[in-house]
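Deviation from plan, reported transparently: beta-L-fructofuranose complex.
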Amino acid sequence: MKRVLAFDFGASSGRAILAEYRDGDLRCQEVHRFDNQPRQSEGHFRWNFAELMANVYLGMEKAGPFESVGFDTWGVDFGLLDEGGHLLGDPVHYRDSRTEGMVELARRILSEEQLYAATGNQIMPINTLFQLLALKQSQPELLERARRLLFMPDLFAYALCGAEVCETTIASTSQMLDVRTGGWSQPVLDAFGIPARLLAPRVDSGSVVGTYQGARVIAVAGHDTQCAVAAMPAPKPGAAFLSCGTWSLLGCELDQPVLTEESRALALSNERGANGRVNYLKNIIGLWLVQESRRQWQREGKDYSFSQLEQLALEAPPLQNFIDPDAPEFTPPGDIPGRVRDFCRRTGQPVPETVGQVTRCIYESLALKYRFALTQLSRATGQSFTALHIMGGGAQAKLLCRMTAGCIGLPVLAGPVEATALGNVLIQLVALGELADLEEGRALIARTQPVGRYEPEDTALWADAFHRYQAILNQSATKG
Ligand code: LFR
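Because the crystal trials were delayed, the predicted structure below was used instead.
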């Protein structure tokens, strides 16, 4: 039997998942869960690295003996090390306001067309490149003192075993990687004056990078989304995926990136997958809107569980008002319900008042945005899709899965809920030689994990709503 330990750092908590694999049987259990709330310190919104590492040690202790360990986190964030290998301050969280105005500044250095052609990444202010640009503006001395930049999953691995590496999937969220070659984009580094010394040697997903007390430290797919995609349960041809958690990443796997001007204008991203393929996807703000609304209602003294919110949404009248989930005002933390109302007011729609109405508006708008993204992906790739795999926490949001199936007019296959941790585990099992490759891993997931199925319903109603939705997107004049 092989025991492997996966650490997954999500928007509100981090988790240690222990997997036991024997003769085609896979069992996972969460052995430790801990807070991963960013906090305000020294003028920025930051990760709490020392506390997280204390929880990594605790998680390993609770797990008992294990063969290997791997870390995944969301994309784009990083820490800087000084000459002595010490962190130069806690890593800054991408929701910090330091990147405001940086895309505009970057445009004066390289056009969006050039940047997209070089990296294939959807241009988003949170991307590492724009965070580095912000740092150059406000604290150039920090960048001068920095010897190394390590992306978050690599930083956790470094803290355990001292390896300074840069795993490819996490690097491909940076807007600095050439998606065609998988190497750094020299023209981008040169144009923005990013010193090459900062960038650690790149390694592929599944590389053993060191050891910790006899266990192997494996650079899995450091990017959580790519772990989730790695765990897609045996996808059939024509399948699209939706990694649905705090963010919604909707896309498909391709052998080659799409770097056309149309693709840039549609704000579609090419990211590297754990299996070396390209994940061509749209980054949609996702369940963050519901999570942050729930926090706002808590601040107002109203505490609802997610299933209560879903029930209230079900009771509200359908298809009344829509938002563009990706309008810029929805990214920062705060009063999301208030901003949803403002959006509806500004676009001349009925204003959702109650908790149920706001939640319904968010869920429906997400389903509509998924259809919008799928249409764009079809257009840019010439592919038509046959089913959508929803993976991650969103797979247990029944209302959202049902709405999405109806809205896109295709079956939704929901699960696994723990796709990210499972992908992390699979990549370790491949690295240990227990599985031949990720395809075998995906077959294992299909065999051992529950996957629900939703058939499309009310498709004519949704088609009509989509029509209205597109007009609202045009009116709100947000991109993508
Ligand atoms: C999802 C995710 C997305 C990335 C966003 C920010 O957790 O990793 O793929 O765009 O977080 O890093």
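The mean pLDDT is 96. We consider this an acceptable substitute for the interim report.
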